[in-house]
Specification:
single chain, about 725 residues, alpha/beta, Rossmann fold, TIM Barrel, 10-stranded mixed sheet, 6-stranded parallel sheet, 25 helices, about 40% helix, disordered N terminus, disordered C terminus
Length: about 725
C-alpha cells in the first residue's frame, strides 16, 4: 500500500475544511453581527424602560447632576393698546380693555399715539410678538384726531412706499376698533378702516374683525357706542384666550349660507403658520383691494371658495366667475334693501322706528328729561326754578319780558342736524338730516309736555324760598321755548304744534340751526323766531357746528335769506367761543345785512362740564367785558342797529334794530296778549291777515337797558350769591 495515499485519505476532512474556509469565515462573521444587533436592541429596550420609569427631573439629575426646568411655550407675551382720542372716549375704552386683558394674566400697556413714534418703534412690534390693539376715532371730515394725526400719516405713507414692501410688518398681530358717527355717512369710521387697511397692506396679521362703534344711538348696532365696544371687546378677549393656548380660532364673517357656519364646521382644521403666511403674502401680491371689513385674515377657506394656491381648470373658471357675480348681486340687493329701510325710517315690518332707543332714554332720563312719546321731551329750566324763588329770571325776561317761572322748555324733536362743540346736552340726542322716525301726534306731545312740566313744578311746593304766588302762576304755562335740544323745525307737524300752542294762549319761541331753509319758509308765524349764527365763515361754521349736510354753508345762507322774508320778530343768536369765532366781525356784519334780523343776541359760550363729544374747555369762555367789547365793535359795522339790553349774569347782550327805538325809548319787550289777538285773527282769516313785529312790541323797562346799574337784573327779585364761591376763571 502506498503511504502517500493513506496519508491523503486521513487528511481529507481537513482538506475539505481548508478548501471551504471562506464560507466558514462568512458564517462566523454573520453570527457575530447578528449577536451584536440583538444586544443593541436589548440594551435600547432596557434604556427606554428605564427612562419611562423615572421622571424627567430624575433623569436630568442622574445625567447632568442638576435639574432643568421644562420650558413653557408663550404664544402671547402681552398686549399693547394704542389709542387716538380727541374727547377721551377712545382713552376710556383703552382703560376698560386693559382691565379685561389683565384678567387673563397678560401684561398690558396703554399708549397714546401722540407719544408714539412709528418710524422707530412699530417694527419692534413684529419681533416682540405682542398683540397690538388700535382704538382710533374719526373726527371732522373723516380726519384722524390730533393725537393720531402723525401716526396715520406715517402709516399711510409707509403702506404706499415700495421701500417698505408688503412684508414690513409680517409677524405683527393687530386688531382695530374705530369710533365714529354714522350720521356722517361719507366718512363713517374712516380712520379705523384706513388704519386696518394700511396695517394689512404692510403684512400685519389681523387677529379679529375690525369693530365699529357708532355714536348715533339710533343706528348703532347695539344701541350706543359703549355697547358696540363691549360687544367687540368680548369677541377680542375670546380670540385672545385662544391665542394664549396656541389655538388659531376662526371667526365667522357673517356670510355663511343656510345657517351653516363654516368657521364652526372647520374650526378643528387648523392651518400651519407657515402655510397661512404664504397664503396671506400670495393674496397681497395678487390683489390690491382693501381687506374685508367684516372678516379676519384667517377666513380663506370654504366650500364655495377656492384656495388662493389651488389650481383651477380654465373650463371651471367661467362657472366660478358666474358664482362670484351672483353672490355680489345678492349682497348689493340686500344692502340696498337695508339702506332703503333705514332711509325710510322703517323696519322690515313696515313700522316706523322710535327715535328714543332704550339706551338714549336711559341717558336723557339721567339728565333730568321727561321724555314724551317716541321723539319729544321736556325739562325744567334752572331759570324757572330761580324765578319761582324770586332770585331773578333769564335773559329773555330782561330782553323780552318773558316770565321765566311760567316758561316751558320743550322740543317735539330730539334729533338735530349739527353736533356743535358747545352742545349743552353733550350730544346724547340723535342726529339726522331728515325725518325718518315714527311720528307722534302734536296733540299728544303738547298735552304730555304740559302735564310733565306741571308735575315738575309741583315738586317745588313747600320748598324754602319758593314764593306762593309764583308757584300758582307757574302751574299755568304762558311761554314755550322750543329750544331744549335738537331741531324742532324737523318735526313734520311743527305748524300744527305751534297752532295748538297759540290756541292755549302760549307764546312760542322757536330756535333753528339754519340748516332747513325750506322749513323756515313754510313756517307759520311764531312769537319770535331764532336762527343760531355760531360762525360767520364756512370754515369756522364747519369747525364749530360740525353739520351733517355737505351743502351746509349754502343751507346756512338760504336760511338767513328765508328769515329776512318773515314779518314777525326774528333774532340772530350768536354764541361766542374764544379763539374760534370772536375775530370775524366784518363777516358777521355781512351776515346781518343778509338776514336783516330784528334783534341780535350775543352770548358767551356756556361751559357745561367735560364732555366726551367736545373739546370745549373753560379757556374758550369769554369774559363779560370781552363780550361787551365784541358787541361795541360789531355795532360800529352795522349802522341800523344799537345795543339795547344787557343781562350780565348770562353773559349776554341784545343788539336791536333802530325801528324798535321810539324817540329815546327802546321797545324790545313783547305785548303777549296783543300777539295772541293777532295770531287769532291770522288763523281766522286763513292766513290772509298778516301782522308785523312792531304790531305787538312793548316798552322796555329802564333796569333792562344797557348801561343801567342793575346790569339786567330785575329789581323786583333778590340776587342770590353762593357762599364760599370760588373765584371764577372765566367770564361765565
Amino acid at each position: 500500500m502506498d503511504p502517500s495515499v493513506d496519508t491523503w485519505d486521513l487528511s481529507s476532512p481537513l482538506l475539505s475544511l481548508w478548501i471551504n474556509r471562506f464560507y466558514i469565515y462568512l458564517g462566523f462573521a454573520f453570527s457575530i453581527s447578528l449577536w451584536i444587533c440583538v444586544q443593541m436592541v436589548i440594551k435600547k429596550q432596557d434604556r427606554n424602560i428605564q427612562e419611562n420609569s423615572f421622571p424627567k427631573t430624575t433623569q436630568d439629575l442622574m445625567r447632568n447632576g442638576y435639574v432643568s426646568l421644562q420650558k413653557k411655550d408663550i404664544f402671547v407675551p402681552g398686549v399693547k393698546i394704542f389709542y387716538g382720542s380727541q374727547t377721551g372716549t377712545a382713552k376710556g375704552f383703552a382703560t376698560v380693555l386693559a382691565e379685561a386683558v389683565v384678567s387673563l394674566d397678560l401684561p398690558v400697556a396703554i399708549i397714546n399715539l401722540k407719544e408714539y413714534d412709528p418710524d422707530d418703534c412699530l417694527i419692534e412690534e413684529v419681533t416682540g410678538k405682542h398683540v397690538c390693539v388700535f382704538l382710533v376715532a374719526t373726527y371732522t371730515d373723516g380726519r384722524p384726531t390730533e393725537s393720531a394725526e402723525w401716526f396715520c400719516s406715517w402709516l399711510e405713507d409707509a403702506s404706499r412706499d415700495f421701500r417698505f414692501g408688503k412684508t414690513y410688518l409680517k409677524g405683527m398681530r393687530y386688531a382695530v376698533f374705530g369710533l365714529g358717527n354714522s350720521a356722517y355717512a361719507s366718512h363713517f369710521n374712516k380712520v379705523g378702516k384706513n388704519v386696518d387697511k394700511w396695517l394689512w397692506m404692510l403684512g400685519a396679521h389681523r387677529v379679529v374683525s375690525r369693530g365699529e362703534g357708532d355714536c348715533d344711538v339710533v343706528k348703532s348696532k347695539h344701541g350706543s357706542i359703549e355697547a358696540d365696544f363691549r360687544a367687540w371687546k368680548a369677541t377680542f378677549i375670546s380670540q385672545l384666550q385662544a391665542l394664549q393656548k396656541g389655538e388659531r380660532k376662526k371667526s365667522c364673517g357673517g356670510h355663511c349660507k343656510k345657517g351653516k357656519c363654516k368657521s364652526q364646521q372647520h374650526g378643528s382644521e387648523e392651518r400651519e403658520e407657515g402655510s397661512l403666511e404664504q397664503d396671506e403674502l400670495h393674496h397681497r401680491d395678487t390683489e390690491e383691494e382693501e381687506p374685508s371689513e367684516d372678516s379676519s385674515e384667517e377666513e380663506f377657506g370654504g366650500e364655495d371658495q377656492q384656495s388662493v394656491n389651488s389650481i383651477v381648470d380654465v373650463e371651471d373658471l367661467g362657472k366660478i366667475m358666474d358664482h362670484m357675480k351672483k353672490e355680489k348681486r345678492e349682497k348689493e340687493q340686500q344692502e340696498a334693501k337695508t339702506s332703503l329701510l333705514v332711509n325710510m325710517g322703517r323696519n322690515e315690518d313696515g313700522e316706523g322706528r322710535a327715535m328714543i332707543t332704550p339706551a338714549l332714554r336711559e341717558a336723557l332720563t339721567k339728565q333730568g328729561y321727561q321724555l314724551i312719546g317716541s321723539h319729544s321731551g321736556v325739562k325744567l329750566c334752572r331759570w324757572t326754578k330761580s324765578m319761582l324763588r324770586g332770585r331773578g329770571g333769564c335773559y329773555k325776561h330782561t330782553f323780552y319780558g318773558i316770565e321765566s317761572h311760567r316758561c316751558m322748555e320743550t322740543t317735539p324733536s330730539l334729533a338735530c342736524a349739527n353736533k356743535c362743540v358747545f352742545c349743552w346736552r353733550h350730544h346724547t340726542n340723535p342726529v339726522g338730516t331728515a325725518w325718518r322716525w315714527k311720528l307722534d301726534q302734536p296733540e299728544m306731545i303738547l298735552k304730555e309736555a304740559i302735564e310733565n312740566h306741571q308735575n315738575m313744578i309741583k315738586q317745588f311746593k313747600g320748598v324754602p324760598g319758593v314764593k306762593a304766588e309764583r308757584f300758582e302762576e307757574g302751574m299755568a304755562v304762558k311761554h314755550c321755548a322750543l329750544s331744549l335740544v335738537g331741531e324742532p323745525i324737523m318735526y313734520p307737524e311743527i305748524n300744527s304744534f305751534l297752532k295748538l300752542l297759540h290756541q292755549r294762549r302760549i307764546s312760542s319761541f322757536l330756535v333753528t340751526n339754519a340748516q332747513f331753509p325750506a322749513e323756515i319758509r313754510n313756517l307759520k308765524p311764531v312769537t319770535q323766531l331764532y336762527v343760531s349764527v355760531d360762525a360767520s365763515t364756512k370754515e369756522s361754521l364747519k369747525k364749530i357746528d360740525r353739520p351733517l349736510f355737505k351743502d351746509f354753508w349754502q343751507r346756512f345762507l338760504d336760511s338767513l335769506k328765508a328769515l329776512a322774508a318773515k314779518q314777525q320778530r326774528t333774532v340772530y343768536r350768536l354764541t361766542l367761543v374764544k379763539a374760534w369765532n370772536v375775530d370775524e366781525l366784518q363777516a358777521y356784519a355781512q351776515l346781518v345785512s343778509l338776514g336783516n334780523p330784528d334783534f341780535i343776541e350775543v352770548k358767551g359760550v356756556t361751559y357745561c362740564g367735560e364732555s366726551s363729544a367736545s373739546s370745549l374747555t373753560m379757556a374758550h369762555v369769554p369774559w363779560h367785558e370781552e363780550v361787551v367789547q365784541f358787541v361795541l365793535e360789531l355795532v360800529d359795522l352795522i349802522p341800523d342797529y344799537e345795543i339795547a339790553c344787557e343781562h350780565e349774569h348770562s353773559n349776554c347782550l341784545l343788539i336791536a334794530h333802530k325801528k324798535f327805538k321810539i324817540g329815546s325809548e327802546w321797545w324790545t319787550w313783547i305785548d303777549y296778549n296783543r300777539f295772541q289777538e293777532l295770531i287769532q285773527e291770522y288763523e281766522d282769516s286763513g292766513g290772509s291777515k298778516t301782522f308785523s313785529a312792531k304790531d305787538y312790541m312793548a316798552r322796555t323797562p329802564h333796569w333792562a337797558l344797557f348801561g343801567a346799574s342793575e346790569r339786567g337784573f330785575d329789581p323786583k327779585d333778590t340776587r342770590h350769591q353762593r357762599k364760599n364761591k370760588s373765584k371764577a376763571i372765566s367770564g361765565c
